[in-house]
Design brief:
CATH topology of the largest domain: Beta-Lactamase
Distance between the termini: 32 Å
Radius of gyration: 20 Å
Helix content: 40-55%
CATH superfamily of the largest domain: GAF domain
Number of domains: 2
CATH architecture of the largest domain: 2-Layer Sandwich
Mean pLDDT: 96
Largest sheet: 6 strands, antiparallel
Low-confidence stretches: none
Strand order of the largest sheet: 6-5-4-9-8-7
Structural class: alpha+beta
Number of helices: 9
Number of strands: 9
Strand content: 15-25%
Shape: globular
């Protein structure tokens, strides 16, 4: 790991469970010397990525907020998916949440969402929150579009979790399940992440023919009639095809 990698690794120490760190804690967690870690922290603080607190503690800094604003307004995937998300939100006949998710470090992260009506529920897919690649429609639709060699590698690391999520108890079963999702064009799951909610998702394919994310909709399971489900699937497929076409033309 290079010096730059180690410095950036300081940022990965933060989470909901660890909202602040000291130089000493960071040095221990990273396996670096105090002197080197202090240099990393000082550089990150100068860039605004960390902010000092009393007692030698550091929290994430305001530059992270600025970067978030920039990516909301400049991200090509968000821009490409905007029209399709608006069409879904304006067309679906029941309260729903439209989600745009992207693949990130073998996880799936929501990067944008749009409410249709006034949904009386909250989805586990929140902007910036990583979700496992094997749970939920938005995740499984991406996994189903990945090359078999990548699925095989992922299975070797998460076979128990994949079995628990209904993908299969063997690699052969996993491939068969993912093949069905891929052929259907839309993945549907119910109460898999949130009890009482149904998610439907279609993959977004980039210029290299690999999945970069997914377009999905979350609704109350009790409100999703067969006719409405058919309509939503059609809209999702059309929207995903439009977004994928835009991405492939970039």
């Amino acid at each position: 790991m290079s010096s730059s990698d180690r410095m950036l690794a300081v940022l990965s120490l933060f989470s909901l469970d660890r909202r602040e760190v000291t130089v000493e804690e960071a040095a221990e967690l990273l396996g670096s010397s105090l002197r080197t870690t202090y240099r990393y922290v000082r550089s990150l603080a100068a860039a605004g990525l960390l902010s000092p607190m009393r007692g030698g503690r550091y929290v994430l800094g305001p530059a992270a907020v600025q970067l978030d604003w920039l990516i909301r307004n400049t991200d090509p995937l968000t821009s490409a998916a905007g029209p399709a998300m608006s069409i879904l939100a304006n067309t679906v006949q029941i309260p729903a949440v439209i989600l745009l998710c992207r693949l990130y470090k073998n996880q799936v992260m929501c990067i944008s969402q749009l409410a249709s009506g006034l949904p009386p529920f909250a989805s586990s897919y929140q902007r910036g929150r990583p979700i496992p690649l094997f749970r939920g429609a938005a995740s499984k639709s991406i996994l189903a579009s990945m090359p078999k060699r990548l699925v095989r590698q992922f299975y070797s690391q998460h076979r128990e979790e994949m079995a628990a999520s209904g993908l299969g108890v063997s690699l052969l079963e996993v491939h068969a399940t993912l093949s069905q999702i891929r052929e259907a064009g839309v993945c549907t799951t119910s109460s898999e992440l949130d009890v009482g909610l149904t998610g439907l998702a279609a993959p977004l394919i980039g210029a290299d023919s690999l999945p970069v994310g997914s377009l999905s909709i979350v609704v109350a399971e009790a409100k999703l009639t067969p006719d409405l489900e058919t309509s939503v699937k059609h809209l999702l497929k059309a929207g995903a095809n439009q977004v994928s076409g835009t991405l492939q033309a970039l």
